[in-house]
From TrEMBL:
This is F-box domain-containing protein. InterPro entries: F-box-assoc_dom_typ1, F-box-assoc_interact_dom, F-box-like_dom_sf, F-box_dom, SCF_F-box_component. Residues 13-58 form the F-box domain.
Amino acid sequence: NSKCILRKYKMAHEILKKLPEDVIIYILLRLPVKSLILFTCISKTWYILIRSSTFINLHLNNSKTAKEEFIIFKRSLQVDPFQHKTTLSFLFGDDLKPVIPDLDVPYLESTFVNDYDQFIGPCHGLVALISMMNTVLFNPATRNYRLLPRFPSDSPQGFRCSMMVLGLDLTQLQMTTRDPYSSEQKVEVYDMITDFWRELDNIDQDMPRIYWAPSSMVFYKSACYWLAIGSKDKMIILYFDMGTEIFNTINLPHTCNSYNGPHYGLVVLRDSITMLRYPNPNPEYDPAQDLMQIWMMKEYGVYDSWMKIYTVRPLLIESPLLIWKDCVMLCESREGSLISYDLKLDKIQEFNLQGCPTSMRAICYKESMIQIPCESKDNAQVQYF
């Protein structure tokens, strides 16, 4: 029980405090977040140490091995004919067994399934879940979450949120809105420190439009990347740098930039931006006539560095979700189940994890002690599962 566990941690504290401070820190850096949270209850000194930004960053940077990664799997489940809920599963190992019970995410219940819900991160241990109505910021390790304020309701007439963009760093969140029926575009930025929205200036009114697909966006090294449709219906990558707050584009390989026909996805593989070209899931297309291709950009931003690293036999998938451990591709099947495909062994495995069609998302996650920033008194408070 909890009293017995706390007693054991107090005994451990008595032993550890006899050691030199640098040795104590060395040991603490190797403990999981659950243990560190318990140690903050032992003494004020340890609470201050473990909650310090220096220790939190050291702990995050110390967790670099693939063995410490697990997968957070998001899906929508139908509760009744008029209600859906968003559920998170926490999976680990080659057989993707759950490590903790599933969580139902507050504020993300709806009367419909939104194909364009986003699940973004992690960045410094934080992830964000976004629906057309709400955005929930969440630390899976500490189990705290917060409903973020909605973007301003006084946008000019004719604007609606059709391109939802969320990027995470230590200081801010960005969200983009766009009116698809007008040539004018508007970008709003939500700053996590000030807890307010502001509009960005000098936005290119010819910015490409987002290519909506379950795997069309990825967050990587303080930037958000989307597949987008440029001039003459050519597929490109649009990205937004969080530091400079500037949009830019990257061209795709010339054999993989046709908007009509195949579908596309973005993942991060071997610390590089990677593009997946896969058969259109529409029944009128024959997947046997089109193989999946996986292209990696070996040198960041350099067009000539695109390299095709895999050609995959036809797979009946709705969409790819991520590539784990450099060779295991997780996908949503046409039947609405989670499946994996081993790129090296040419092996398919199906898991007993289902969801509403097109609602599945997945990210790799490493634990962090980082706290969700304090909010203003007028907005939702940080809560705990």
